[in-house]
């Protein structure tokens, strides 16, 4: 009897979690639809948009560059012995360049920004929600969704691709540094080889999906913060769940982007 009761309880709990998952997906879709509706209606908060772009881009640049530099170093140091074993060490710049530009650079940069930006947005908007600052904006006649949400989502959508470019360049510099020290390959030769290996089809998909990465980071961070509940404890929950949900959605978006790009490569 006790076992059957536990089984029923476990099933009901599982059904509740699945139901809550689909409810949250629906709420997130509605939130995204509201964003696309508000973005084309006046007034346009250009000053706040520029401020958010500066805050997100400038404060994330050092972290992204440091991460990119370490990725370039580690990827080259780990790959070099294997490439030497197969007699393909001359292909190192090609391999590292294509790997970083097409996949590693955008994904790692987006994950770093999800941890920093999405959590920051979730905590900031969550604290404004629980302290009733958002309600005060509505009472005063200001549209809090346009001022707080639209500007932040646009800022992340615009700034993540720029951060990806910086991260890729610094990662390639780190790789070139290893090749220069271990293989006596000049920086000019290294970068000439990398740019010769890269094609238009490598740059465009990576750039396009970087915009979607930025959109997902801003959307999830704003969604979690704007709908924060349970008092001050909800601020921490909003920041934490924003990072988790944004990271998972980044992998989903990346899979879809890679799947679509592979279809075009086969045509």
TrEMBL record:
The record's InterPro entries line, in alphabetical order, gives: ABC_MlaE_roteobac, Permease_MalE
Membrane as a keyword of this entry, yes or no, is yes
| Assigned GO CC terms | ATP-binding cassette (ABC) transporter complex
Which residue windows are transmembrane per the record? 60-77, 153-178, 198-223, 235-260
Q: Name one Pfam family in it.
A: MlaE
Specify whether Transmembrane is a keyword of the entry. yes
UniProt lists the family membership as follows: Belongs to the MlaE permease family.
GO terms assigned for molecular function: phospholipid transporter activity
Q: Which UniProt keywords apply?
A: Membrane, Transmembrane, Transmembrane helix
Q: Entry's NCBIfam families?
A: MlaE family lipid ABC transporter permease subunit
Record's superkingdom?
Answer: Bacteria
Q: Which organism is it from?
A: Maribacter orientalis
Q: In its UniProt entry, what is this protein called?
A: Phospholipid/cholesterol/gamma-HCH transport system permease protein
